[in-house]
Each structure stands twice: as C-alpha cells, then as structure tokens.
Amino acid sequence: MSTTIIFVRHGETAWNLEQRYQGQEDSPLSEQGRRQAQLVGELLSKRKITAVYTSDLGRAVLTAKCIADPHNLTPIVDERLREMSFGDWEGMTREEVVEQYPELYRARQRDNSSHPIPGGEQPGEVIQRFLSCLEEIVARHPGETIVVVSHGAALRMTLASLLAIPLGRSQCLSQSNGGISELVYNGPGASCPWRVITLNSTAHLLEHNL
Is the pLDDT of residue 136 over 70? Predict the structure, then answer.
C-alpha cells in the first residue's frame, strides 16, 4: 500500500535573508517566513493529513505547527530530520565563506559530496539518518498522507537519493522556503519505488505576491 509524503522546507529566516549558513544553528522565522508557513498550512488544510513530522530546529517546528494546527495534530519532532551540520561555516555569510574558503567553495559548487566542510557533517551521514526516519514513517503510515518538515540541504540530498540522482548534483534540486515536494512511496519492489507528484512547488506563495 502506497504512502504519500509531502516534504516542506521551513519558512524564510533572518539568516536566510542575510545569506548566512544556518546548519544546525537556529534563526527565527522572518515576517515573510511566518507568512509562508501560514500559507503552507492553509494549502495543506485542504488535504487529509494523518501526521506531521518535523526537524527539532525551531524554524522547522514553527512551520510544522502551522501545518498541523488545522488538522488538530501535534507535530512529531525527530532530530534525524534536522539540517546538515555546516561545521565551521555555520553563522558565516556566503560572502565570508567565499573570501575565507575560495577553493573549497568552488569545489563544492562542482560536487558538494566530495568536498566536506571542516567540522561539518558528511552528506552520506545526513542521508542515512534522514532515510532511517522515512523508513519508519512509511512503515507506520501505509496508505496515508504524511507531512515532513525539514531544511534545504537535507531535503535536496534526500530527494536526490530517493530519485537516484548523483549526490554530487543534489544542489541542482531547488528547495525554496515554504516550497512543497510531494512523492508517493510504492514500496521497494515497485518499478518506481518513489514517484514524484510535484517538486518544489511554490504556487501557493507566488499567488500571494511573496
């Protein structure tokens, strides 16, 4: 029996606006980020949602609450869904990283899976923990529709893994703040184990001039 997973990236944060690497540090949702979370919640209020799972980081939890409230659900927090750790880069702006780590930054633009950030998490570690959580979710909710709220890099790498896209090209999968990606899990024996319904949909945000 198939399970539908709706992946949502959290709303915009103050550090997103400043182009700072957040990783497993936290930054509050901006005014627009709070509105994005509300709009995602309004859109998904029309769906029959059984459960909402979320990263334990505050920006994801607040977004998840906006989605869960219309369904009278309480978000289920799981740290395996949190963002990749960016190690020494966390809190730095993109401009600062380019200035202090020019060669590594350029190398990661070509292939982010083979060039780890000092003190950071390996991409394979992110995928392993995220997929272990997903395996439990689909086993727990056969035939149901579930929401998973997470973060940009973690979602890009996980989606690349599910769709058999080379990990080094995962940055080619855009994941916008408040963006929605919907996939259907048909089981490991299916010709298409994970079928894409939509990838990084933001129409619910654009229609409101965000």
Answer: yes
